[in-house]
Amino acid sequence: MPSIEGIGARRAALQMLDAVLRRGQTLEAAAAHVHNLSPPDRALAVAIAGEALRRIPDLDALIDSATRQRLPDDSKARMVLRLALAQKIGLGTPDHALVATALPLVEGGPRRLVHGVLGTLLRRGVPVSDAPRLPAEVEERWLAVWGEQTVEAARRQIANRPPLDLTFAEDEGAQAYASEHGGVSLAPKHVRLESSSVADLPGFGEGKWWVQDLAASLPARLVPADAAEVLDLCAAPGGKTMQLAAAGHSVTAVDASQSRLARLRENLDRTHLAATLVEADALRWKPNRTFDAILLDAPCSATGTFRRHPEALYRARPRIIADNAELQTQLLATASQWLKPGGTLVYSVCSLEPQEGEQVIDGFLASNADFFLDTAADLPDFAAPTESGWIRILPGLLEAEGGLDSFFMARLVRAA
Ligand SMILES: C[S@@+](CC[C@H](N)C(=O)[O-])C[C@H]1O[C@@H](n2cnc3c(N)ncnc32)[C@H](O)[C@@H]1O
Q: Terminus-to-terminus CA distance in the chain, angstroms?
């Protein structure tokens, strides 16, 4: 039988969506497990699965409105329908191609049902919300802590891919680059562009800049300029290591993952920056000295990165958030031992869960009387500390400019 054009990418998208939703993988990991795909097909499959992940509750409501039969959440029929509708909404795929590439995926299964639901929805017209719903448990959790406005903003943000943020090694040149390429600069060394292919942008090969969400660039900006020896814990793939090295600090970068450290090494090579790399579990590693400043960018649920990684909202089950909070508490306690008296410890997570941010810092301060929060406001105005003294970047901030990932960060100082 001749193969249907585009079916390979759709089959791969189905595998990816299934791996994310049923097995809790990241979309990147799920994509890496699909073999024998051309680069364009792989990119298309990731785009289709990613688009579906931005809108699952809305897509499911549409599917349920077109059949009386209750399709289980993880059934192949529901997955295929989600992918077809996501293509209609996000990629503008023509209806005949949607149907032609959806039906073979349920061959030997509920083909008639899928055909019927898809036909009904395409005839009715598929509405496109500019504020699709988040998974119900996430909305409930965030409504309770952050309120309606923030949830509304998060819904608007998940609808679209975010712009491309670059961090420059030198401030000189960043402003000119922004105006030359139709971008804006929202902080020193920062340039924001409409999304485009990174490798094609001028300056990539020379290592003048690297890709880093503006919010992710803030924690390293909290490290005092005069800190000579800086420990970057949980450092890979190294966005913050490069910032610290470019700012002139002598940096020791520690990470437990060999493959992620290899990416850090490549990043340093490309940008002509230097750091001492250590592959170690930060909970066991014992340095032979203490540091002037430490940046702990701890592993977390990553729910703050939902614009780029919408699947984070499905992976972050309460158990995972609680396990992360436990690990973060241990990492912070361990890191604090390696700080000189009078030194600065910056803690950050790209999470919207207070358990991984505010509560970790509250717990640490309660049992470490020699540490206090430093609230000096030396970040851009949009990232001013809250009344509690830490910095919380929420959905909705700088929305007109394209928004930011959500982050928590705190700068702690150890009494001299
Ligand atoms: C949020 S990412 C770090 C991102 C990085 N700071 C950057 O800016 O590119 C968290 C990192 O923590 C590392 N990690 C997780 N558990 C660790 C541990 N026990 N010791 C050291 N590194 C760990 C992971 O391998 C991962 O690279």
A: 76
